[in-house]
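Please check this protein record:
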Amino acid sequence: MMIVQYIVKVIVMCSGGVAVGTLLLIEEDKYGLYSSLLFKYFLAEGIVCGHDLFVASAKEHPDNILKELPAPLRDDSYRKELGDEAAAVKPEDFQDSMKIAWRYQNLPKMETSPTTYTKFGHYYDVSKKMSPELCQSVKLHSFYLHEELPLEPKTKTWNMNSGYARLLQSIQRIISQGGFDGSDPQKKQRNVLRIGIQSLGSILWGDDVCCSDAPEDPQSLTKFLYVLRGLLRKSLSACIITVPAHLIQNKAIMERVTNLSDMVVGLESFIGSERETNPLYKDYHGLVHVHQIPRLNSLICDVSDTKDLAFRLKRKQFTIERLHLPPDLSDTVSRASKQDLAGSAELLSSGCGAMAIGKKHLDF
């Protein structure tokens, strides 16, 4: 794995990328560390591609988010990083790779990293920030909830809370005035609008779905997504939303949120869990769950052979790889780890095993 791109790299392996007019939902990890990073990758790719950006948040000011975008790597820098990473393999890692249990000897070899250089999109260095000059090269639109809400008593539009209503009005205005309306013929050259909404559904948006199993207004979030999806369908825009799904206690609401999204990806961080110290997952920082992929021009969606993905964050790299089991268990592995290994083996038998048989690896 190399310097990772935005979350499209995960979806590329499943459905071919994020299409214009679709909605990508990211279920945040517990502390929001990695979901925030993927959110910034999506925005950074938009700037490098020359797309217009619309950033909305109730948590932190959009200007501060844009200041924290990772710096893009040039092709020559990317090749150098790739060469340095290949040369950084430790001798003990090579020795460990030689310890293959007899039951794994006849299985096909599975590659977690590409053997050749495959260029897809752009790559970024998380240890460096994008230059202000590059950020200012595209049109940036921001929505900070605490600056947008009126001082008069709260009123409901579209029968939802005022925060969601104001956000929809801003998105609708930018789509209409910016020339992104697909139904309106435009004479000038068209561009793509990337919409990023951070931590939608949290208490900061004035929604109580994260506070109670029986919220007072359980329909605001789903109504917002329903109207937003209609705006996306007729516009030249793509949207990414992060949602604190682990805080939403009402599973029925989360099911409706999933159904109203085109694709859903969940991040499970190992921070604070037993897997953080489990030798089985020592090389990873969390798991990536692809819950739903879109149905584009078809009655049913494509089903990926790879269902087990893991990620890890290094000093310069955020990598997403196929999760595979180690071939050898040392004496230091606990009984609980061995039970976890046995359970994972059944889960991975249909995922990674199928992917290893003749499937071409995609760099993501």
Summary: The longest strand covers residues 237-243.
